[in-house]
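Data card: per-record layout.
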Amino acid sequence: MDEPGFMGSTRVAVLGLGLMGGSLALALRGRCRALLGIDPDPAVLSLAAEMELADQLSASAPDLLAQADLVILATPVHTILRLLEDLPGLHPGRAVVLDLGSTKAEVVRAMQRLPERFDPLGGHPMCGKEHSSLALAEAALFCGAPFALTPCERTSDHARRLAEELVTLLGSHPLWLSAETHDRWVTATSQLPYLIANALLAVTPAEAAPLIGPGFRSTSRTGATSPQVMADALATNRPNALEALRGFRRRLDLLEAQLAGADQAGLLATLEQGAAARRTLLDLADHGETTCN
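The structure for this 293-residue chain is written out next.
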């Protein structure tokens, strides 16, 4: 398993067969030695069986985990933290452990506490849909997306190579970051947009619905994300989320002051600054895109 292309000899267990875990399994079918799918929901397992999602499926982690060389935790963050506590009792052998959680600092700290027979690192693919369901899973979900990888102090070269090969197979491009940097950045690119969209939806009067067009739909799209999933993520990234909200509030205060003072020149300059920032950000983001075959 230490040679290039060793993903083909790896037995992979995916815990959590929602949108992310299901899409990852679809993308890995036929590309690893064995694919094992685990989810506690009987309805999810039934659909997974219909989709022929994995070589083996089970609601019980101990039934399959012992076979796995690579364990992928594809659940909400709080469930990942619980699974990391339980993992030593669920898997008796050695394995690389990768998670797909949307915040990383607490996860990486928990990974550091795993027994030495586990080789862990954090991961977060920057893709998804508003609704998380196996029924919406697709193999191409990860194509072109950045895939953050946040190693622990103990992460081996083997785990790094395996993770990079996995990310490449998914059609994503790996982005190596510290867990702290990831959490600071993801606040700005994912969590703050969700909070803004959520607030926008809450203050939009129902009587305005007939005038809803593409602009409102795109601006508010992230507001459809599961509130429970986002609340869990925000709880594990509270200081960064608070700082981002304070910065956004300062910008809103500036816009409000310029409108209230009829400062048309100042307002225009502020709006132009925001538009220029968007062009710069998207140019930088597009520079790292990966094209899927």
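Known properties of this structure: The two ends are 25 Å apart (CA to CA). The beta strands are 11-15, 34-38, 56-58, 70-73, 95-99, 118-125, 146-151, 173-176.

See the next section for split statistics.
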